[in-house]
Amino acid sequence: RGAIEKDLTLQLARLVKAELERRMRTRVVLTRDDDRDLTGAQRAERANQARADLVISLHFDGLPEGRAHGATAYCPPATFVATGREPAAGGPIPLIPWRDVALRHAVAARELSGDLLSALELRAQGPTRLREILPYPMLGVNAPGLLLECATLTSDADRARVTAPHGLAALAATIAE
User: Fold this and answer.
1) Positive or negative, the Cα torsion across 108, 57, 116, 52?
2) Distance CA 53, CA 134 (A)
């Protein structure tokens, strides 16, 4: 209905970048700044080469029947299972597979997700949900990160909010805050 996810996402990413750079005087790197497809591995490589302190993968949701609305954050599960065994002196050092490196940052990613969802709720951009699961865009990313479904485009109310004249700017300001 006139809202194209990839276009809204790129527009939102550019607005978030500008807002963060203005507020924090920091360098923000977009994994893509034009309409091209990148693989998950290419995105992870760009984030890791930039030595990212934080990675947010922005998206807009779409669900059948249009009943769902609001935002959902997906972050690595902030749980730890101890083996009860320490590596023997001079023995092999356990390594994390490259694809699961984001799990090292799960606690920070969970805290960030909670803060971001709270900000969205406070600014009437919810309801919000948190899902603790390693999202595909975080595979291989060596930094705290999350995937944020910013709104549900199949919801008339969400779509109207983000496509309103200042809708994406308000959402970008909330994410940056």
Assistant:
1) positive
2) 18
